[in-house]
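USER:
Class, as today's exercise, take the chain set out below, and explain how the chain folds.
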Amino acid sequence: MTMTLVPHTQKLLASIKLDTLPAPVQDQFDEIWEAAEQAADHRELTAYAALHAQAAHLIGLRLPATGELARCTCPACYCTRIFDAAHARTHLDGTVEFVQCEHCADTHLLTGDE
């Protein structure tokens, strides 16, 4: 008797631009993201991790090993990429922190001289 294993999982992405998803999915993601931010503000780290896992599942991302996602807030191009937080580049402009994905940092790294 021969047994064949057929994988039922699709290959998950490492990053995705939020604006490429349908509006209802974007809205759901925003709600989950806001809840995760509030959990982080209250030091509810278990809830924070669970919400990031839920967000990754919703938009079809592979959950990073750290369990933490980042959202690109690049002011140069208004990128909407969601990606592994371990690859985030950050820039502090006064009291505002900007997060850049690898693509934005490679293309137009924020230096404070903008």
User: Anything to note?
Assistant: The beta strands are 16-17, 69-71, 81-84, 89-93, 96-100. The chain has a mean pLDDT of 88. Helices lie at 23-41, 45-59, 102-108. DSSP finds three helices and five strands in the chain.
